[in-house]
Amino acid sequence: MKKICKLISDYMGVLVLLSAIMALVFPSVISQVKPTVINPLLGVIMFGMGLTLRWEDFRIVFSRPKDVIIGCIAQFTIMPMLAWILARLFALDEALTVGVALVGCCPSGTASNVITYLAKGDLALSVGMTGVNTVLAPILTPLLVLLLAGKTVDVDVAGMLLSILWVVILPIAAGLIVKSLWPRQTTKATAYLPALSTIAICAIVLIVIAANAEKLMSSGLVIMLVVVLHNICGLSVGYGLGCLLGLSTAKRRAISIEVGMQNSGLASSLATLHFAAYPMATIPGALFSVWHNISGAIVARLYTRNDKSE
């Protein structure tokens, strides 16, 4: 069973891509599943994240406050700014602007920690940033979306705050508590968590893309280009910031990956819950889920290849 789970997690990018293709080929079948299941699926992912975190992971805030502050500022400025620039550069409509803004304003997810590990980055900083940024997300994500998209669409800041608390913070807290109460059993379960998260992400991608397959086929190239540029620019600017500040190579990699890889499942969930009048707002998050797993694996390989060449 562990070998199967490892295979699933190792080929996460491939499986997410196959899920997107299946959703485009069989949209009528998959669209029978209601989008309301996205929130429970995201809750499962966040609960798994809580099981992998430790209370000690948050001590980095006090032991290395400068690194965390730099990371947090980078997280909640670079990607929202890039979302705003790309939305105007490509003259995106209201729905897609909201979707890209949601991706840009969300915190990073657990995938960034895996990629940072593979890239030989500063894993402690990565995990600490993910935890702190996720805690800050209920306040910062709704406010940033309001700032970016509030002039053209109604943004329910209070509703989004509550959604993030229920769908993200509560499951993570539950995971932390369960790990504290039953550490031995939790340690055994963690081997299966990456595979479970992969399956949940694939399901979210299936549901979101199948629901919008027709529109995606007609205008998918533009949306995909924006998503790819958003991710690549985030990775690049994050790394460049680390260079500008004279950080170590390991820290640069961690910040680059944390900034460039977003919790895109949360973006799709918030779009489904709070922007139902704009169905296409869910698409950037779903496509980002597909792409950033592929780009993350490529970036990790490039970083480690650079180590070997040195």
Key words describing this protein structure:
310 residues; mainly alpha; globular
Task: Please describe what this structure looks like.
- The structure is a single chain.
- Helix content is 81%, strand content 0%.
- It is built from 17 helices and no strands.
- Helix 9 runs antiparallel to helix 15 and helix 10 (123-149) packs antiparallel against helix 11.
- The mean pLDDT is 88.
Please work out how many helical segments DSSP would assign: 17
Q: Report mean pLDDT, rounded to a whole number.
A: 88
Rg result: 18 Å
Low-confidence stretches: none
Shape field: globular
The number of distinct β-strands equals 0
Task: Note the main sheet.
Answer: none
Helix coverage percent = over 70%
Order of helices and strands: HHHHHHHHHHHHHHHHH
End-to-end Cα distance: 39 Å
Proportion of residues in extended strands:
under 5%
